């Protein structure tokens, strides 16, 4: 783990070098496939330095995508709600991110994902493994049902992001965030905890 | 209306010429802004010839996008259902289109819409004015609520198309169409006829 730590740790360019290596690794190997160790090697620094600058892999990913959100706080906020309000809380959190300054970058990533399978995979793996799987686990949802519920939530959340921020479809493009939460929240609630499988 | 009808009407290239002019007009002026007359002028033919080959504007649009579906039959099929089954029928019809050979072209249009505002507008106007507004009118839905309901339906339907056909998110990407209908149908039903506005 000696690494080629030629640059001084305090160097601004070291941080940028790590971010560039991270973007490349995530795009090439997906979120799950990329490793801190591999990214450190790509940037020519010690893995400890990557941890020092960015903490965990999810934080490095968000920094690389230029989406400065606190995912831990967001998940905690969603799971702090009563079980039957989790849908509304999750939509409120997601709309809050899309509508924030960080949202512009998130939308840019979404747009790239439409024409680039590697970016699509990276984004999908990140959302599933970092956001939705933590919510699903926090709700104690059956593991066998988790993938379908996760994908359904994603289908609605991505659909809102696309209609609001890419296709600019009114009134979704201009509607007040809380109206959107009232309309979409119950859908996400049902996908998380309701009846979504066809009767046998 | 004399037009520059130099080519023989039976010419294969006349048909292609009209389609090319149609694609250009729809992309440039949107679905609502483009006219049969303008498209005929662009192709250097009489408007009557455009009607002869393609019928109405919606059919010309679908032919231009290479999405050979019968929209009239589709709308009739959806509206033929009892009111509380319209959501399921609409999702079944849309999934049927996306999954058909015509669906590949529809997905290509969707993909283009993500990076091109003109194509986004064209697609949005077509879906809203040709498909959803006919369903909304057929259901006798309050005109004041129609735009929000339409946009909500679109947000879910586009979200499914993106996760199933662009992001390839399993299990939505590989799930049986009827399972998707069972999961998504009730959402669309609520967006069309249920309670979607926040309590005052």
TrEMBL record, chains A, B:
Residues 35-54 bind DNA. The keyword Nucleus does not apply. Pfam families: TetR_C_16, TetR_N. Keywords: DNA-binding. Residues 12-72 form the HTH tetR-type domain. Coiled coil: none annotated. It comes from the Bacteria. This is TetR family transcriptional regulator. It comes from Paractinoplanes durhamensis.
């Amino acid at each position: 783990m000696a690494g080629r730590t030629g640059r001084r740790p305090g160097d601004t360019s070291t941080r940028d070098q790590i971010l560039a290596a991270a973007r490349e690794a995530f795009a090439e190997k997906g979120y799950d496939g990329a490793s801190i160790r591999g990214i450190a090697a790509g940037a020519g620094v010690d893995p400890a330095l990557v941890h020092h600058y960015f903490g965990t892999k999810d934080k490095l990913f968000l920094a690389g995508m230029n989406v400065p959100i606190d995912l831990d706080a967001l998940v905690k906020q969603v799971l702090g709600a009563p079980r039957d309000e989790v849908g509304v809380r999750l939509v409120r959190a997601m709309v809050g991110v899309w509508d924030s300054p960080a949202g512009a970058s998130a939308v840019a990533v979404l747009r790239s994902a439409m024409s680039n399978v590697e970016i699509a995979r990276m984004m999908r793996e990140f959302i599933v493994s970092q956001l939705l799987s933590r919510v699903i686990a926090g709700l104690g949802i059956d593991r066998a049902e988790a993938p379908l519920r996760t994908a359904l939530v994603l289908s609605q959340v991505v659909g809102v992001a696309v209609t609001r921020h890419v296709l600019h479809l009114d009134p979704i493009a201009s509607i007040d965030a809380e109206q959107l939460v009232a309309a979409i929240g119950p859908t996400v609630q049902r996908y998380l905890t309701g009846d979504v499988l066809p009767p046998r």
